[in-house]
Structure prediction request, 587 residues.
Amino acid sequence: MHVDWFPLWLSLEVATAATLISVALGLWLAWLLANRDFPGKDLVDAIATLPLALPPTVLGYYLLVVIGRSTWIGRAWEAVTGSPLVFTWRAAVIASTLHAIPLLIKSSRAALESVDLACERAARSLGASEWRLFWRVSLQLARRPIAAATVLAFARSLGDFGATLMIAGDIPGRTQTAAIAIFDDVESGNTLAARVLVIVISILTAAVVLLANRMERKRVTH
Amino acid sequence: MLRATIMKRFPAGPESAGFALNIEFEAGPGVTVLYGPSGSGKTLTLDTIAGFVAADSGRILLDDRILFDSGARVHLPPRDRQCGYVFQTYALFPHMTVRANLAFAANRLPRLERHRRIAELLDRFRIADLAGRFPHELSGGQKQRASIARSLIANPAVLLLDEPASGLDATLRADLHSLILEIRQSLAVPILLVTHNPEECFALADQVLVYDNGAILHRAPPLELLRNPGTADVARLLGGFNVYEAEVVALDPGRQTSRVRLLDNEIDGPHLRGCFRGDRVALCARPEELRIAARPGANRIRADFVRAAERTQGVRVDFGNELLVDVPRADWPALKEAGERDGWWIELPAISLRQITRAANTLVR
Prediction:
């Protein structure tokens, strides 16, 4: 039996990169939504939620429209790096990020909003800048639910299929992630390889979800 | 010196009545107590001074600094206001030790001074041996002291205390009071303290601002407030006053006395300014200024005993019609026996009856 482990490694790499981007971008957006009033806030909130609700293929289609080779973003990328953005592992990272980030924004926002207002006011009154307040107080007090959301976001980006297929394609050895490889293996009758990948992915995801649940629970006892 | 003119309006919502804060006051070094019922705007006043809430209009000056000026569009962020704020819930950072909480506040001090300053305050507030503990490992009184110590680290220009005694029992409350008086001695900045407890108000205040429904009804030193609450509303808010409606029967400006009809009795009254015969006036007297007697006499009125309540300071006897009399506990059994045998008369000395204004808005503003 030959099992190609490349898709699994690629999936892990893509998911890791997507999670890092999601955390950086998602925390910032969550903080904005939790602490600032600005015009179009409801719209930003809605757009941030949309990837949760839309079919992944629709999401992938939009991505093609935005970063495809004929768009200005696609062309700018190509001009700078010399190669197209779509149908590379980078495109898979973008698709996975989009797939995972709504969860992170929603949970982090709720976590940041639940931080005791008096603590935040105390920090401000004691001379802390917003930056210091965020790192030393708000983030520390909200760290458990945010960490749990991060772990779940990782699991989610590990499992993206539709959007990744649309924008990164299914190029074995280059953009074929585990989720896509399983589909391919089943389609081509290679059930044993599919089964191995399915079991590994299941165990991995179960472990991640267990971890997330434990993080969530510890918050109560503090 | 703190000078504040604050206007802040909250429009009525579907589930809330509207509220408007409209106040003006000055507070020098010493304790200024913001006294009034819940929801009268006391904490909101602290929040606008600290900068957590922006006023609609007005000016807040602290020494020579402008914290807020709607005309000049100045609204300093809380971190630049140098206000020490002690929250009702203490608001210690739960993930930091007591020392780390204090160190967080010491961040703006010169590096070399931080350690010394933290050690000094840990010592002064008797929490040095608790420095390594987390807030959830402290008792209410310890949290309170840590919270006050933290607010003082960076040498605030004003200290704001929001109902600091609300979660404490009687002993800790007394400790807190002596602590606040100690701070008042050593710190020459205004201390604003919010409370709805009259005992606390009179124990700590150099100046009292009596709040009701977003306005300051009266501003006076506590003893003056006790001597003359000024208006019926203030008397009601302070509690412990008998307030009566009386009719002027005769006036004698030469002897500075009057005759008034009060609870269907005609008795001697105080000098009444700006009154004519037939006018109705409001008079007040404190329960400890009235006397219980067992026979009729000068300025005594007939009353019916309703109930007697034990209090820490003595016995408060209720005769209905807002007629409350405080008597020392030792005197009560004899008075009670005599009253039950011969009937009850209450003496209202003319000198203890003070004229107050019925309407609230004639005194301040």
Residues 237-362 of chain B form one domain.
